[in-house]
Design a protein that fits this description.
Layout: E1 3-4, H1 10-20, E2 33-39, H2 43-53, H3 65-78, E3 91-99, E4 109-121, E5 124-135, E6 138-150, E7 176-180, H4 184-192, H5 202-206, H6 217-226, E8 236-242, E9 250-259, E10 262-269, E11 274-281
Parallel strand pairs: 1-2
Antiparallel strand pairs: 2-4, 3-6, 3-8, 4-5, 5-6, 7-9, 8-11, 9-10, 10-11
């Protein structure tokens, strides 16, 4: 198991992905698992992440924050020579996180990242990036990010058909309406390190088939969870599907509905089409 002492530099990995191009490199997923120990929380960066995503300033990490810490490991794995698909063209279609207890800014973390479960999809093939985060030798956080590779060409995401929704979503009057500024992608990139050009500038996004820059899916998930404020329990899971790209700038409707076991929520365009469907379960 390769062990990394520091987080890989995402800028170098993105350059590597562009230089490698769209060439396929095999048919199976590698069994590589990357490990990184002794991860300490940068309080200033965490505070800025909280501001960008709408969370209050607390000593607990938002449930989405370990994704930011592990993302360089995920990109390193997906740009390795043994990985079968080019990074450009992969579409993040779903994300599930399970938290056993809140992580604190004082926790020192260990993270493991691997890929698994390559499977067919009506529009191509899917696979999962699995991340496990431990504190004090205890597994406290686990994430499954599902990616879609359509055919052999970069994704034209506004025309993508992502299949039937697994999650029910929510209908009815919006709980809140949010104006999402045009610089949201750049601000989230600064705190997450995810500088995919589709999120940064309209001209760069158009080169990849988008009319305008789009928001990061994980920003959308974080922003929705921030709306729950203090209502989320210590231990829970949150499952989302990313449905329609959120073009920047936009105005969106957030809707949530509670039940005994948790909540369902959704983020919709003003046209009524869903950007994101989600559920929180205790």
């Amino acid at each position: 198991m390769p062990e990394l002492s520091t987080a890989p530099k995402l800028s170098a990995l993105y350059l590597k992905a562009v230089a490698t191009g769209p060439t396929r490199r095999g048919d199976g997923l590698p069994d590589t698992e990357y490990l990184r120990r002794d991860i300490e929380i940068d309080r200033d960066l965490l505070a800025e992440y909280n501001r960008v995503c709408g969370f209050g300033l607390r000593d607990e990490l938002p449930i989405t924050y370990p994704h930011v810490l592990s993302f360089p490991l995920s990109v390193r794995l997906m740009t390795d020579p043994g990985f079968p698909f080019p990074l450009v063209g992969l579409v993040h279609v779903a994300n599930t996180i399970r938290q056993e207890r809140p992580l604190l800014v004082t926790d020192v973390l260990t993270q493991r990242v691997r890929v698994a479960d390559l499977r067919p999809h009506p529009k191509g093939r899917q696979f999962d990036v699995i991340t496990e985060t431990s504190a004090g030798g205890e597994l406290v956080w686990r994430e499954v990010s599902t990616y879609l590779r359509r055919g052999g060409a970069p994704e034209q995401a506004e025309q993508a058909e992502r299949g039937e929704a697994r999650l029910p979503g929510v209908t009815g009057e919006p709980t809140a309406t949010w104006r999402v500024p045009g610089d949201t992608g750049r601000r989230y990139a600064a705190v997450s390190g995810d500088r995919n050009p589709i999120h940064l500038h309209p001209l760069a996004a158009k080169a990849f088939g988008f009319r305008r820059a789009i928001a990061h899916g994980m920003w959308s998930k974080a922003r929705c969870l921030a709306a729950f404020a203090e209502r989320l329990p210590d231990a829970y899971s949150v499952d989302v599907e990313f449905r329609k790209p959120l073009l920047l700038p936009s105005t969106v409707d957030f809707t949530m509905s509670g039940q005994d076991t948790g909540w369902d929520f959704a983020l919709h365009a003003r046209s009524g089409k869903p950007h994101l469907l989600g559920s929180v379960r205790r």
